[in-house]
Design a protein that fits this description.
This protein has 8 helices and 9 strands. It is an alpha/beta fold.
Amino acid sequence: SPEGMVASAIEFGEVCRKHDFHNFIFSMKSSNPQVMVNAYRQLAREMYKLGWDYPLHLGVTEAGGGADGRIKSAVGIGALLLDGLGDTIRVSLTEDPEFEAKPCVALRGVAEQALGKGVEPFDEKTERRKGVFYRRECTWPIDVPLNQDGSVFARMSVKELASLDTAEMCDRLGLRLRADGDVQKDWKSVDVVVLDGMVTPNVGVKLKTLMDVPTGVICKAGPNVPDGATILVTCEDAAEGEKMSERLGGY
């Protein structure tokens, strides 16, 4: 936990200081960006209380490769750099070492652009800044399946969905097709499908199947859109058009 990591870091720091050794740097790296960010922030808070000023090495342990590794590193390291924390950084990728340099340079550039700008003051009504965390209360629309811990959206075209049979559609969206032909959700299923293009009659039937799972559907308005689907409306159309009538699924 972040608290345990900070307690351990402070303990080792005190041992070093007891022997008048100050040539060290703190690294609170974790494979979980959220844990890593909280650990560094709590350590910075504790060092401030103790009057310490030791450098921090930022990084996300075993972030992975490709886009996933770069995104995890950007979330963790970037958040701390914008907080004004960090003296050295490393993006740990499961790739050749030379590929780690470019993301580091990009993150440093983002931090340099934000240097001295700060943020506008705002009223923090929770005690999050004091290290007290609790789940925010959210009210979810009853006709769009969403999860408290985050929802997975999948984007498809009408043409792609029309080309899939039921088994292929289930495989594409992580659904489970029972032996009796019934379609059910699985642990890896998407929560909402965002459809590009005008819905055709055969695609409308497939959307109805998805909504019976239930899987949320977001698409453009049309005569073949089943009841309960969420209609996709641009900001411009919503601002310029007449007041939209209430409907199951909403907009």
